Amino acid sequence: MIKKTVIFLVVIIILGIVAYILAPKLDTEPKLTVNNFNECVSAGYPILESYPRQCNTLEGKNFVEDIGNELEKSDLVKVNNPRPNTLIQSPLIVEGEARGFWFFEASFPVKIFDDNGFLD
Question: What CA–CA distances, in Å, run from 118 to 7, 81, 94, 114, 115?
Fold first, then answer.
C-alpha cells in the first residue's frame, strides 16, 4: 500500500514539473507592441474620458491623443467644427470663434493638413 502511494506521489510530482516547464511554451499568443495612442485604441485598451483622450495599457503605459496645438491657441481661436481627428468631407465648413485684431472682417486663413503633415 505504501509502495503504491509513493509511486503515485512521484508520478504526480513528475507531471507537475513537466507541466511547469511546458506551460510558458504553450502561451503562443503574440504580445502586441503598443507605441502610440491609435495602436493603444486598436488593441482594445481602455480610453479615459478626458480632453485630450488618454489610453492606458496593462503594462502602465499612458498614451495621449494628438490634438495639435488646439489647447495652446484656445485663448485666440475656438474651433467648434471640425474637431481634431474628425473625418472631414467636401464641402468643408469651418465654424468657431476668434478674438483679437489679427483677422479682417470676420474671416481668416485656414490650413488643413493630412496625417502625414502635408497641406491639402
Answer: 73, 20, 19, 5, 7
